[in-house]
Design a protein that fits this description.
The protein is mainly α. The chain is built from 19 helices and seven strands. Helix content is 56%, strand content 4%. It is elongated.
Length: 619
Amino acid sequence: METYLRNRGDRMPERTAPMGLEPDDDGNVDESNQLHYGNNDEDFSHTLTQHQPVAMLFSKSSLRSRWLVLALTCTVMTASYYSYDIPSALHQQLQDYMPQSSNFERNFNLLYTVYSIPNVILPLFGGNFVDRYGAPQCLLAFASVVCCGSILLSIGVSNKSWEVMYLGRFVFGLGAESLCVAQSTITSDWFEGKDIAFAMGIGLSISRLGSIFNNITSPKVANSRGGIQSAFWIGPVLTFSSLFAAALIIFVDRRAIKKLKKRGGDVASTELTEALLEDDDAPVRNENNNPCSESDQVHLTDFRKFGIMFWLLTISCFVVYGCVLPFNNVAAGILLERNYYKSAPSSCHLLHPDQCTSGYLQNGTNPSLDSTGALCSIDPSQAPLLPSSVNITSSASDQSGEWDNEAYVYPNLTTHDVQCSDPFFSSACTRDYCSKESDSTERAGKVMSIPYLISALSSPPLGLIVDKIGRRAQIASLASGLLFIVHLTMAVSHSSPVLPLVGQGIAYSCYAAVIWPSVPLTVDKKFTGTAFGVITSVQNIGLALFPLMIASIYKASGNSYIPNVEFFFMSCAGLGVLIGLLLNRLDRRNGGKLNGITSDDESRADAGFANVEDEYFSP
């Protein structure tokens, strides 16, 4: 990636002398051998004398421990992703568990809005902090905040308090998006060269396993004896465990810097963490280890120097992720309404409308009948009928001590009144309804994992393909077009959701594989952390607004997701297509950086970096 490696005028070596020269035991080379260095404006040569070690060509990207660092960052991000997605996997269970309210959908979506609100601003500082103070220790700090937020959220659930849950999600959001900035910057730092998209693909792949495990595990735990509280408390356990991985990254990174310095290497690639090893009073230094001038230092206002290519990438990220992440937030509700727990047929009625349907309060049977008096045929994807009214007190059963309330008086019982977390409904009166709901939520959880599963499997090879073929802006446009087709199908068709969600997964994987590795190609290298912070910040403006918009559309549509919420997602994807076309047009005018191929002479090996053994993977 020429821009990423050279946009700061870094003096990358060009081979004009035969490679393979071996240093002597002291690490010196024959002074007759020369390496010529190229700058942006002029070429000049330097002679490596016997006092200049060959190891000056080494960087972090030449160390095999970069794969250990990648594995550790994935561990941290997997825990964060798991915890972030717990509410979306338990949408229906939360509705049953929390105090009854006609505003549940708004309250639920606010969990995602309050998460995103602090990240409209914080990633700007997070990226700047990463550039100034080092990504590894920032990763540990942000992971600690994420852990605290996860704990607060679980406390709020245990106490059925939306307010405490909002506080937990707010604190969680204080660290989670900046955590992504630090992780992306660490990956960029350790994988300079043509492997960066592949490494980011692996990072996204493994991290997204957290979301998949959550979508499968959380409904099972919530529907078991452990209940919804246990399902939420898994999050704090995982995020606390991830702190050890974050701490180990700091150790590995420091050892790598010391090793490279000991070899007399190129410390330009260690600029993001070099401050950890300097004295507090030492001046800030640039990539050549010289004191920085004012113009060399990183400032928050540097985003004003970013060009139109970066801002088009940012807008594309804003709208395209608007039909990916917010969709997953409510995917369980959409799938239940559309496919797996549809409303009971209106033409059917209970034999005894004011009696329980099944459970220990129903001594006989209360079958569903059609207008002719015959047994009603209810599709497996439909919910069982509920009593039209209920008037039962605790005196009706000696097992009422398990119930949440003393009396259940509902002149007009609706689906919103039934709380399957209450043993009165799940065991005593509407057992068939709650049992079917439990099975349906677990099925929906598995199906809604399809996009993330495809992402986890395809991201690494897609990253490798992008490194080989380029065409980043073109792939982004095609991915947006596929998302448009996916949500159009979900809106107007009643077919199985599997194929559309496969399309969602393919589109999401392709888009993520190109959008994030494109960021370093549009800004100067020293602004990489700040650029990731800006694009994450703008993304979170959408992720804060879109859940509230979805809740409003849902309520205005008569408490229904289909089709209007899907039309909203479709419009976001359509805007992504238009922006992608404009991005491709401008990229052609500006030399084709985004759609270009990373050539071998720009790669780490051909730039003169050696693949060396290091203490973490040496035999």
